[in-house]
Amino acid sequence: MAKQTIRVVAAVVERDGRYLITQRRETAVLPLQWEFPGGKVEPGETDEEALRRELQERLDADFVIGRKIGEKHHDYDGYQVVLALYAASLNEGRPVRAKRVRDFRWVASSEFGQYQFPDADQRTMDQLLGIRR
């Protein structure tokens, strides 16, 4: 039996040497952990459409989706996650606010170690962004 594949997109938003990260809500899977903002791609959506929708739903802001930075596959018990990271920039017309996330922060890559990221996300962003720990 083939594993179910879940496609997930996330935005790497950098501004003045700092990256936008979001904190999962208390009721989410892996509660209170931090991640680059994004979410699942729904049937019929392109990656870019899904990412724009997820950013709007989670942060109530408008983003310009740029180039694909990379894609990683992670196997879990019974399913596979395909995580695609995209460069993105914030349209300055409206400030970011936590809408469907617990919190958000702008942090330097050197500060990532102060935040708990899900293991798969941590390995993916380290590899794709060239971060050494």
Set down the secondary structure blueprint.
Blueprint: E1 4-15, E2 18-23, E3 34-35, E4 38-40, H1 47-59, E5 63-76, E6 79-90, E7 103-107, H2 119-129
Please tell me about this protein's structure.
The chain is an alpha+beta fold. The protein has a single domain (about 5-130), classed as Nucleoside Triphosphate Pyrophosphohydrolase (Alpha-Beta Complex). Helix content is about 20%, strand content about 40%. It has 2 helices and 7 strands; from the N terminus they run ββββαβββα. The chain has helices spanning about 45-60, 120-130; strands at about 5-15, 20-25, 35, 40, 65-75, 80-90, 105. Strands 1, 2, 3, 4, 5, 6 and 7 form a 7-stranded mixed sheet that branches. β1 (about 5-15) and β2 form a beta hairpin. The longest helix has 13 residues, at about 45-60. The mean pLDDT is about 90.
What's the quick description here?
The chain is 18% helix and 41% strand.
Strand content: 35-45%
In CATH terms, what is the fold-level topology? Nucleoside Triphosphate Pyrophosphohydrolase
First and last CA, distance: 37 Å
Low-confidence parts, pLDDT < 50 over ≥5 residues? none
CATH level-two architecture: Alpha-Beta Complex
CATH-defined superfamily: Nucleoside Triphosphate Pyrophosphohydrolase
Q: What is the CATH class?
A: Alpha Beta
The general outline is globular
Tally the structural domains.
1
Q: Bin the helical content.
A: 10-25%
Our count of helices gives: 2
User: How many whole angstroms does the radius of gyration measure?
Assistant: 14 Å
Query: Based on the structure, what is the oligomeric state of the protein chains?
Result: single chain
Please, what is the average pLDDT? 88
* Biggest sheet features: 7 strands, mixed
What is the total tally of β strands? 7
- Structural class of the helix and strand makeup? alpha+beta
